[in-house]
Design goal:
Blueprint (H helix, E strand, L loop, with lengths): L7 H16 L5 E5 L4 E4 L1 H6 L13 H4 L2 H8 L2 H7 L3 E9 L5 E13 L2 E11 L9 H14 L4 E6 L4 E4 L1 H8 L4 H5 L13 H14 L3 E8 L5 E13 L2 E11 L1 H47 L7 H25 L7 E4 H15 L4 E6 L6 E4 L1 H17 L5 E12 L13 E10 L6 H6 L15 H11 L3 E7 L3 E9 L25 E5 L3 H14 L2 E5 L2 H10 L6 E5 L7 H11 L4 E6 L4 H6 L5 E4 L4 H13 L3
Parallel strand pairs: 12-14, 18-19, 18-20, 20-21, 21-22
Antiparallel strand pairs: 1-2, 1-5, 3-4, 4-5, 6-7, 6-10, 8-9, 9-10, 11-13, 14-15, 15-17, 16-17
């Protein structure tokens, strides 16, 4: 799910304010998942624990980032909140923070609950100040705390025991009542007047519990702003007790649109990781099968005369294998957990690659037409995120046409000069890719168009309100913009502008190399370790045909024993990356303790991500499925480079 930063002044304020509100708060704020790993934190928290960037904390725990005494203090009570699903508040005094300042806090912890189960928590640290006293200490202290209340970045309110408003701070007044004289705006108002009708009954129930138990209550509700917008708020209400009776309430309210994004992300991430693991596993096994199919069919095709009656059929098998390889590669890209890595992509080639996948998403009663512009044009974007943009737009178009219709995707170039730039949001003058996705579906009303990029907004019962929010966020992250044109009953067009990278040169073509040329390297001793028998036999046959001496092992244990016993020199280890007990990376490390000079090549159906994570820069990688030439070229390249 994503945020809509700009869609007119009002929506601009509504969507972008949530992130700004928490990120610019003086109080440190953080969100953790059920494993107490950081899912998000604001700038104040990152500064307090001396992080150069907030992203360094994501996925880590306090013990990964902080010395043990500080980590223990900051994490106190968090397991209890997750276990019981009950908010808590405690005071931390004299904490020696990593930025060198000793602080005292009131720490508020609220569980993030989805479907009745805590899946994470929100923490807010409100620093307890030490006001300076002058000659008139009481007056200066009173002024200090009055200013603290009035100008707080979070909304604050004081009511009597019935809920009639006594005082609002500036933030609450401007958001809930608009600008004006605060005393006149709150006169005769009850706090219930500002709460969404559907949430009032629950608030009254919690208010009664707080009165009877004389206890603080924290809860999530919807409030209505002065201009009719719905605000998602986290409320903390503290009863003020005198002579054993509640005489008033002090409230703090935090705009929680960003936290709701994190809630959905926590649940979504868990599902996506499971789905990604399954998809990666299927792709790995299928890539092993494709390696054998593609490898042997390529070898048979080369040995077959073009006039042979089965030559055309064998050629079709090779083509089908290549298309299947592309599909498994896309599955791996979608299941990847790596951070986005922008790179130049040729938009024409990318559209060709994505078209096959997109056709699997739509129904048979929907026609998909892709109209590509001529010429290579490159944009700088993470390929997986670009694929998500296309996928979400096509799915949105499909769902607008339950009875069938047509989806048209067009790409073109657009020059935006100084006079045109103001017509588009978030872009500067320059040359842009124009990507349009049009459908012949039900279209949208003007009201729906105004909210179509809002997080959680959907017009469908089964919708999550995520897809278009994600599209908008990705496009904005890459300095682009998105527009929607729609007429009820006549379809919808989404138009995206993304800047060209400015480097549209075609990559230099490699000169074709004939088999048996002088650049081939032969006669090496190569140890092949692969637990799939058919893949191992294929690699063995390809390398022997090239003139190498090949030793084979079906697992890491057999390979280590063979390396210890072999009397000659083993020049290269080729091993599958994912095997039982001893995987390829562990095997490469162990075998180098026996044969320090051996060269290593890993092959896998998963992808090169693991090698990058392990920072194994001296190890080659071969992606499955591969063709015979892919294998022999990689081997030649390894031996062509100095050891």
């Amino acid at each position: 799910m994503q945020e809509k930063k700009t869609m007119g002044a009002v929506l601009d304020h509504f969507i972008s304010h949530a992130r700004e509100a928490m990120d610019s708060m003086i109080s440190p704020v953080y969100i953790k998942d059920a494993g107490l790993r950081y899912a998000w934190l604001n700038r104040a928290y990152a500064d307090m624990i001396r992080l150069s960037g907030k992203e360094y904390a994501i996925g880590k725990t306090d013990s990964d980032l902080l010395p043990s005494p500080v980590a223990g203090e900051l994490a106190s009570g968090e397991n209890r909140v997750l276990k019981n699903g009950v908010p808590s508040r405690e005071t931390i005094t004299g904490l020696p923070c990593p930025d060198g300042v000793s602080r005292s806090f009131v720490k508020t912890l609220d569980p993030v609950v989805i479907d009745g189960s805590p899946v994470g928590l929100l923490g807010i640290l409100t620093e307890i100040p030490s006001p300076v006293r002058g000659r008139d200490g009481n007056k200066e202290q009173e002024t200090f705390f009055e200013d603290l209340f009035t100008n707080a970045t979070a909304m604050a309110a004081i009511t009597d025991w019935r809920g009639d408003i006594i005082k609002l701070n500036r933030k609450a007044t401007e958001m809930l009542l608009g600008k004006g004289d605060e005393s006149q705006l709150v006169e005769g108002r009850n706090i219930l007047d500002l709460i969404h009708d559907d949430d009032k009954q629950n608030v009254v129930k919690l208010w009664k519990e707080s009165i009877l138990g004389k206890k603080e209550m924290s809860y999530q509700i919807r409030m209505i702003s002065h201009d009719g917008r719905v605000l998602y708020m986290l409320i903390s209400g503290r009863p003020i007790v005198k002579n054993n009776r509640v005489v008033s309430f002090q409230y703090q309210a935090l705009d929680m649109i960003d936290q709701k994004v994190q809630e959905r992300n926590l649940l979504h991430t868990s599902s996506v990781e499971t789905l990604g693991q399954m998809a990666g596993g299927f792709a790995h096994d299928f890539n092993n099968i494709l390696t054998v199919i593609n490898g042997y069919s390529e070898m048979m095709l080369r040995s077959m005369d073009r006039n042979h009656p089965f030559y055309g059929k064998m050629f079709q098998i090779c083509q089908a294998g290549t298309q299947a390889s592309m599909l498994t590669q896309k599955i791996l890209e979608f299941s990847s957990k790596n951070r986005p890595e922008p790179k130049e992509i040729d938009i024409d080639q990318e559209m060709t690659d994505q078209e096959t996948l997109l056709r699997h998403v739509i129904e048979e009663n929907i026609k998909l037409t892709v109209q590509r512009s001529t010429g290579a044009k490159k944009i700088l974007i993470d390929p997986t995120q670009f694929a998500k943009v296309l996928l979400n737009l096509v799915i949105n178009a499909k769902e607008a046409m339950p009875a069938g219709g047509e989806i048209t995707i067009t790409t073109d170039a657009l020059d935006v000069d100084e006079s045109l730039a103001p017509q588009y949001d978030n872009i500067r003058p320059g040359r842009y890719l124009s990507l349009c996705v049009s459908d012949t579906g039900s279209g949208m009303s003007e009201e729906v168009k105004q909210h179509v990029f809002d997080p959680f907004f959907t017009t469908r019962e089964s919708g999550k309100g995520v897809g278009l929010w994600i599209v908008n966020s990705i496009v904005k992250d890459y300095h682009g913009t998105i527009q929607v044109q729609s007429i009820e009953g006549k379809g919808t067009t989404f138009r995206i502008l993304l800047p060209f990278s400015g480097q549209e040169q075609a990559p230099p073509e490699k000169a074709p190399q004939e088999p048996g040329s002088s650049s081939e390297i032969t006669g090496k001793t190569i140890l092949v370790v692969e637990d799939d028998d058919t893949v191992r036999e294929l690699v063995d046959e390809i390398l022997k045909h090239r003139g190498h001496h090949v030793l084979t092992a079906r697992n890491g244990g057999d390979a280590l024993q063979l390396a210890r016993q072999y009397e000659g020199t083993i020049d290269l280890l080729i091993t599958d990356m994912v095997m039982r007990r001893i995987d390829g990376i562990m095997l490469s490390k162990k075998i180098r303790t026996i044969l320090p000079d051996i060269r290593v090549m890993l092959m896998s159906g998963y992808g090169e991500d693991v090698i990058r994570q392990e920072e194994l820069t001296d190890i080659a990688f071969l992606q499955k499925p591969f063709l015979p030439d892919d294998l022999t070229s990689k081997v030649d390249a390894i031996f062509s480079n100095p050891a």
